[in-house]
Each structure stands twice: as C-alpha cells, then as structure tokens.
Here is the input.
Amino acid sequence: MLSRREEEKLRKEAAIIKEAEELFCINGFEHTSMNEIAQRAGYTKRTVYQYFTCKEDLFFAVILKGYERLWAAVKESTGTCGTGFEKLRRAYFAFYTLYREHPRLLALMGMTGLVKGKSETPSLPYRRRFYEFDRRMFDGICALFRAGQEDGSVRADIGTGYLMYAAVFSLTGFFHMLSVTGKAYLGVADMDEDKFIETGLQLFLDSVKSVS
Here is the structure.
C-alpha cells in the first residue's frame, strides 16, 4: 500500500504528464516550454523539475504513457483464442483505434527518434524507462508473429525478426503520416478516411499472411 506522500507524488506526476501531452500535441515539442507546462498543471517550474530532469525526459514520460495505453489495448484484443494471424489482425486494429481516439498523440509517438532536448543532463530516467518498455513490447509483438509462423497462419519464408520489424515499421509509418498529413491527402484524393485505413490495414495484413 502506498503512503500518502507516494500517492501525492504519483498524482503530481500524472497531472504534469497529462498537461504536457496536451501541449506537445497542440504546439509540438519545440514550441512548448516547461513554463507553459507548469502553468497548465498548476505548479511552479521548480516543482516540475523535481519530477522531470528536463523537457526531453518529460516528452519520454508522455510517449511512455501512450505506448503503455497502446500495448494494453493490444494485449486485451489478442488475449482471446485464434491463430497467430487472427491475433495480429486484432492487434493492427487496436492501433487503428488509438489513431481514431488520439491522432495527435500518435503523431507525437512517431517522433521518438527526432526529439532532442537542449539540456545536457545525462540522466533521463523516463527515456530509460521508455526504451526498457519498448523492448518488452517488441518481444511481445515478436511472440505474436512467431506463434503465427508456428501454427502456419503467418508466412515463414522470412525470419521472424525481419518480418516483425518490417511490418511494424510499415504500420507505424502509415499511421504517423496519416496523423500528420492524412486529412489534406485524403481531401485531395476525395477518399473516405475509414475505408482508406481499412484498405491499408488489409494490404499490410496480406503481406504477412501465409499463402499456403
């Protein structure tokens, strides 16, 4: 059981992360200051720095929450019976659900390798926690692909690691571009967004499905 002090610490962290997510999604990482985040959260900047070493680390706290939300949805959707391919299909559509509910957050999550803070602080606890979680999540995704290869529902002519990483790269790139430029692109092409996404997902799934 957490002490009152620990509960208060978690409450403040959550409040700061929530406001940081809102501002990062609206203004972008570069155009959001720690002062603005502190004001939105109702704390002083000094208080914010007690919980996060710099803006870059706060960014990783935000996207860690985003990926935790995504992975929880994937695990819930793939926990039922079915072949490995059927579980992958549900996982892909869990990603689709996150895009529909939080398109700006998904765009932010696609910037992981691009965000560079100005701080020279070597210790970024949330960045470390994010990459540790990221490794566990990819291990879980790889297990879905491996299960599909073992039950014959996912193509086995490509090594599991290469197949999984290429598939995830394609899927995340698709949704990142959609979250950044999708409205304008689909407007020019006069296409329905849902039908376009479902078509894209079908193509991605067909590329990993066993043809035997």
User: Anything to note?
Assistant: Residues 160-189 form the longest helix (30 residues). The chain has a mean pLDDT of 90. The radius of gyration is 19 Å. DSSP finds nine helices and no strands in the chain.
